[in-house]
Automatic annotation (TrEMBL):
It comes from Melanomma pulvis-pyrius CBS 109.77. It holds the Pfam family Exo_endo_phos. This is DNase I-like protein. The active site is at 204, 255 (proton donor/acceptor), 363 (proton acceptor). The record marks 257 as: Transition state stabilizer. One of its GO terms (molecular function) is phosphoric diester hydrolase activity. The keyword Transport does not apply.
Length: 378
């Protein structure tokens, strides 16, 4: 198969990367712009690659030192409360790959504390000024496929963090998961108001590999992780179509572990081994642009970033074992159902693609603004 042409380098690699350390006062990522409309909700999504660096104390700044931001240096520490404050208290933040065992109630409680409390005494007074947040976990309970490297189940997992005052504004909020996933990959927020009904999905999709996928009940090998990825696509597609059939508008947000086309990979899109091409095509068929051609087969969603930013090349995954910007992909994104998009409920979206914004993770945050009153944009 002919390989795709290499894409234009991302903005951060067009100039030589400086070897000078980043000063502490410039260590925060550029924030998303302020909300232009008070009737909007801002949702962040971030694969944080493990919650531990966000819970360590003491934390005196977003990073422990300038040395910690080096691509090959130590992993920096971060503060969830600082992130929320720095971005003007968003309505929701969806975290993926939090790596908390379902039995670890201590760490779960530490997360609840971290989103509502600054980790430094000098910022304690700010906690009373900002809103409180409720925390909802979807954690692995599959003993055969989510055991972790040491058998403790600390792999995968998603966390949906929601402002506590959301329900107080005449909206009925329900958070649930799905019965077909036991790896902690799907959190569903059903949001009702007199004007609309939404189903917002926090997704950490399966990464396709040749490793075995086992029956969650018996442990018998059913195929590979590639096979499970294809099944995950099908089950999630069916879930989304069922939500739309029930009168809900659907928005999918998170890490989908697939780059959609040549614009989404640098220096090039991954096409080997062949199974990655199969996985990509399967995802495109089941979720993207199929409504007109195959109205009864695909979900027919729209890639919000491409709809709003055209061919602009921006990336969300920057592996820590590579120099910043030398290898990257856009695999975290937002998919709007056709009805969600046509009602103009999407107002803006962005990617915080900086080395500072990556923080302790190997992904950077993404964000979207959506209507909170059910009124279409002018």
């Amino acid at each position: 198969m002919e390989m795709e042409k290499e894409t234009t380098p991302p903005r951060s690699t067009r100039q030589k990367i400086s070897n000078q350390p980043i000063l502490a006062e410039s260590s925060y990522e550029a924030p998303a712009p302020p909300l232009a409309d008070p009737n909007s909700m801002r949702i962040f999504s971030w694969n944080i690659n493990g919650i531990a660096p966000f819970l360590q104390k003491p934390i005196t700044s977003y990073f422990t030192s300038s040395k910690s931001v080096s691509s090959k240096g130590s992993i920096p520490l971060a503060s969830l409360r600082d992130f929320l404050q720095r971005h003007n208290w968003p309505t929701m933040i969806f975290l993926q790959e939090i790596k908390i065992a379902s039995s670890d109630s201590k760490t779960q409680e530490a997360v609840r504390i971290a989103v509502n409390t600054h980790n430094t005494a000098e910022k304690a007074s700010l906690d009373k000024r900002g809103p409180t947040y409720d925390v909802f976990f979807t954690l692995p309970n599959d003993p055969h496929n989510a055991r972790g490297l040491r058998g403790n189940g600390k792999v995968y997992g998603v966390c949906s963090i929601i402002r506590s005052d959301l329900s107080a504004t005449s909206r009925n909020v329900k958070v649930r998961t799905v019965d077909w996933d036991k790896e902690g990959r799907v959190s569903v927020i059903e949001l009702d108001s007199p004007s609309f009904k939404l189903a917002l999905y926090n997704i950490y999709a399966v990464n396709g590999t040749d490793n075995p996928y086992r029956d969650p009940e018996t442990g018998a090998v059913l195929g590979t992780r590639h096979d499970r990825k294809l099944a995950f696509h099908r089950l999630l597609m069916e879930e989304c179509k069922a939500m739309e059939a029930g009168g809900r508008e659907v928005l999918l947000v998170g890490d989908f572990n697939v780059a959609l086309d040549a614009r989404d990979g640098f220096p090039k899109l991954r096409t080997f081994p062949q199974q990655h091409v199969i996985n990509r095509n399967d995802f495109l068929f089941k979720f993207m642009g199929q409504e007109e051609a195959q109205p009864k087969q695909g979900f027919g969603g729209l890639d919000v970033w491409r709809q709003m930013h055209g061919d602009e090349r921006r990336y969300t995954y920057f592996p820590r074992n590579s120099e910043w910007g030398s290898s990257c992909d856009r695999i975290d994104y937002i998919i709007a159902g056709r009805g969600f998009w046509e009602k103009q409920l999407v107002k803006a979206c962005g990617i915080l693609d900086s080395e500072e914004g990556r923080g302790p993770s190997d992904h950077v945050p993404i964000w979207i603004d959506i209507s909170s009153d059910g009124k279409e944009n002018e």
